[in-house]
Amino acid sequence: MKFLFIVQGEGRGHMTQAIAFSNLLGKQGHELVGVIIGKSKRRAIPEFFAREIAAPIHEVESPNFACDKDEKKILIGKTIRKNLAKASTFWRSLKQIDEVVKSEQPDVILNFYDLLGGIYNGIFRPKAQYWVIGHQYLSYHPNFKFAPSKGLNKFFFKLNTRLTAIGATEKLALSSYKLDSTEHITVVPPLLRTEVKSLTATTGDFFLTYIVNSGYSEEVITFAKLNPNLQIKAYWDKKDAAETENPLPNLSMHRVHDKNYLRDMAACKGLVSTAGFESICEAMYLGKPVMVIPVKGQYEQACNAIDTVYSGAGIASDNFDFSKLEYLIQSQFATENGMKVWTNSWPETLKQICSKTKMTEPDYILTQSFS
């Protein structure tokens, strides 16, 4: 089957998931005909994505979060106002998506949680099957643990998730642990790239950190300055940053680079990160303890933090105090790790999903009539 991806460009997680899924498709004889990715003025699309995805990339203007002046907290009201003001720009993006769909004629459009993907499917009604994939769709599961909500954060999270999935025939809910699927979603393992699975984990003398919003770098620098005995390697995707910066003897800041980041993940003694699903799962696979700091104002990250603790991966914090993870490590904390068996079930899972899709509509109706 021919697949077309639509990928949210915020953070590295959706991009690495797309790379992993494209590799699964290739191994089973499917074709990735193109990738549509949302771009942002705040961050650059990493070089590794263009190198690894092995398909034509089409960049479009897509809705993004708006931060406070310190580039830390997500402001929901400002996000809504800013994106509504760009409605005409996003309409042009929808028409760009339609041009790609008409040109490539995919059998399946797979959306990695980009809002425009759901709106496109709802308005343009392409002939292709429309699938969605992401950890956020686990919120449809009765066992999903919602974080306490301030104001309308939970409402907007659930609304955004539903909008991305308008008309979806398949909702693939990524989970770090095994759960039964429901009539609404298919629960699937995390999408980890081959490079992660080929790594050999060791225990080095440094902490690894990933900063999704550049404003959090000040917290990391402040902590490193007060704790010169702790070594820290930090990765971020700030657009104008140098490849490597060394603000302190015990702290280095690096532009996101897939191979270097994973190499350091395998060698670190623990991961301190904003609460993005993908980095947590990579750390779990490699048996690394995790401390997550949910991005303020981003409700889904608050839910991810609860999930991190529940899954046995580590702890949650409201700041980049690396000493908390150091204390956890000193207490002989061991991560729960059924991750390898769970992630290795992906090939069979994909076969089952694709076999359902290959059933023609008349056959499906006939099957349903006699079931």
TrEMBL record:
Coiled coil: none annotated. One of its GO terms (molecular function) is glycosyltransferase activity. SUPFAM superfamilies: UDP-Glycosyltransferase/glycogen phosphorylase. Pfam families: Glyco_trans_1_3. This is Glycosyltransferase.
